[in-house]
Amino acid sequence: MLKNLFFLFVPLCIHAQDVQKIHANAIVVDSHNDILTACFEKKVSMDNDLKGKTHSDLNRFKEGGVDVQIFSVWCDGKKENPYTYANRQMDTLDAVVSRNRGKIALVRNQRELKRAIKDQKLAAMFGVEGGHMIEDNLDNLDKLYARGTRYMTLTWNNSTSWATSALDETTKKDSLAKTHKGLTDFGKQVVKRMNELGMIVDVSHVGEQTFWDAINTTTKPVIASHSNAWTLCPIFRNLKDEQIIAVGKNGGVIDLNFYSGFVDSTNKNKETQFARAHKKELDSLKQSGVQAEYALTMISEKYASEVQAARPPLSMLLDHLDYIVKLAGVDHVGLGSDFDGINSSPQQLDDVTSYPLITKALLERGYSKRDIGKIMGGNILRVLKANAK
Ligand SMILES: [Zn+2]
What we know:
Elements (H helix, E strand, L loop, with lengths): L1 H7 L7 H10 L2 E6 L1 H8 L15 H6 L2 E9 L7 H18 L4 E3 L3 H9 L3 E8 L8 H9 L2 E5 L12 H6 L1 H6 L6 H13 L2 E3 L5 H10 L5 E2 L16 H10 L2 E4 L3 H4 L3 H11 L1 H9 L4 H11 L1 H7 L3 H15 L4 E3 L19 H10 L4 H19 L2
Parallel strand pairs: 1-2, 2-4, 3-4, 4-5, 5-6, 7-8, 8-9
Helix pairs in contact: 2-19, 7-10, 11-12, 15-16
């Protein structure tokens, strides 16, 4: 009975103006976006209108109310000279900044961060995705820091000589037992150097042993820049309950990844069914010389309504958020979309203009304005500050 009475006092509709105001007042931070890689691959520039081509561009960041974006610097483990490649990607963003000084600023410290937010410019930082990019050399870590790298993901899907990845720890258990698992002594030195520099340790993509070694070595709060809850979607690199609790205790933040496959445990089956249903067309495209991945993209575009219907509802992403809040508390969750690094996201979350929908969904779930401010960016800003020199 009491419960029913209480229900009467819960606002039944959320006004658009309220959402707009709360979203505008929040400092919105996303800790993982792959537009730099997308621009390289598609030979486009984010200062142009890239609607229909990418998830992100400068004007759409503004439209989505994004105040701070950490841009992912990435290449896979097979790339030769990954350190040089990382620098080339950083050159691209530097060039965008120099062409658009009224819209975006590269920020290296708290003062510059505050200044950019106050001036209503997009505050940009780098997040290096994959320890292989330092090529086993701590001097390279220092140089990446000097250029504006404020976190490094210890591994991408590939392991380094000093840290094992989640993918390897789950698929190469036997061979890893013969070499190493987790962080080596040099790996621990990397973490310590990152702490000294003021570069956040990112545990997205790392294996469980690496996670525990990192969390026991670091003296500063860590982040998972783009990861979700394993219990709700048990894929190799989502975080188990005890990891989520440990990030909370460490004072860190788990930033939600929008990739449908990491949100919805049924996504993989849906993808397989889609490919099976269009096998004939896929095969004939491949036979005519189209690469397998591109053939799937072409078919996905042709049957866009089917692809659209297979996307999980936005509520499912919010379920991950609620779950992390329940385990670790509202101070330990944020946003790390992985936009432009993913080919499917929950319904309505179409691109970087979609962030107000998350603010709206949080209001609908009963989060207070204060908590919304933390989730939309306050939490990761706290971790950045705690890591800063
Ligand atoms: Zn990633």
